[in-house]
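Async update (no meeting this week)

Hi team, since we skipped the sync, here's where things stand on the single-chain job. The sequence we agreed to prioritize is pasted below, unchanged from the tracker. I ran it this morning and attached the output directly underneath so nobody has to dig for it. Comments welcome in thread, and please keep replies under the output.
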Amino acid sequence: MPILDANTLEIFSRSPEQTRRVGMRLGGLLQPGDLICLQGELGAGKTTLVQGLAQGWGSLEAVSSPTFVLVNIYRRPDSSNLFHLDTYRLESIPEAEELDLDDMLMQGPLVIEWPERLKPILPEEYLWVQLAYQDEEQRSMLFSPRGERYVQLLAEFRQSVFGVV
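Output:
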């Protein structure tokens, strides 16, 4: 088990509801231009976390995995968008470039499942979340910021979840 630094946060969830609540805390802090990268095997809890993110961000729409459509867009009553991209079925980086991540980021926050498939074209700064299946009900989430905005976001998130900085 690696030793975590001050800018890394690990959370263990003991139920899908708890994973959604963690997502709600993070979703409430998101701004247009924020990039959240969710890495983890099938069943690790990525879509469950996104359900909470979208709800905390303010979307009234139900969240589902965009595996077959690539991108789902969730809207708030103020007409702003949250983009949910699943790159599991992408064949190549040129195919990914056609999605225009920069345009999505200009319009709202972007959450990417399977971001390791896009590593060469990702912006330099993001919040990386490594999710792992522990057992039937338990998942681990390791939050690692890259860039000053995400160090600050993680500090705000830590405050929101635990009440301490």
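Quick observations from my side:
The first strand starts at residue 9 and ends at 13.
The chain has one domain: 10-158.
Reply here if anything looks off.
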